[in-house]
Structures are given as C-alpha cells and as structure tokens.
Write a sequence for this structure.
C-alpha cells in the first residue's frame, strides 16, 4: 500500500488500497473500496462510493449531479 503526498483527504473512508497517487482530493463521506488504485491529479466529490478492485486513471474527476430531471 502506498499513499503519495501531497494530497487532500477530508473525513473519507479508504479501505485496503494499492496506490493513491499525489495531487488528489477525496472529499467528505467518500468510501473507496479495497484493492483500488487511484492515480495522480484526481478529484472525488463528497458522497461517492467506489467499489472494490477499481482503477481510477490520471486526472479523473467525479462530481455529484443532484439535479432531478422529469
């Protein structure tokens, strides 16, 4: 397991990860499953849940769309 700094972690839950690269932000109430690989320059907005065994590539951004259509 490797966590590369600098990084911003805010009240999130990270299970047994493989790698979390530098220059990323994981916001409040995010859950990252076991054996995940998060590359550098990524952003994960609050209230996301990422399953086990996931790969998040370089520069990915996850945001919430709370607008209801219909």
């Amino acid at each position: 397991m490797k966590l590369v700094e600098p990084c911003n972690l805010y009240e999130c839950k990270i299970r047994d990860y493989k790698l979390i690269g530098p220059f990323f932000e994981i916001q409040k109430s995010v859950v990252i499953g076991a054996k995940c690989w998060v590359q550098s320059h990524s952003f994960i907005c609050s209230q996301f849940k990422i399953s086990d065994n996931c790969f998040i590539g370089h520069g990915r951004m996850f945001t919430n769309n709370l607008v209801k259509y219909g």
About this structure: The mean pLDDT is 87. DSSP finds no helices and eleven strands in the chain.
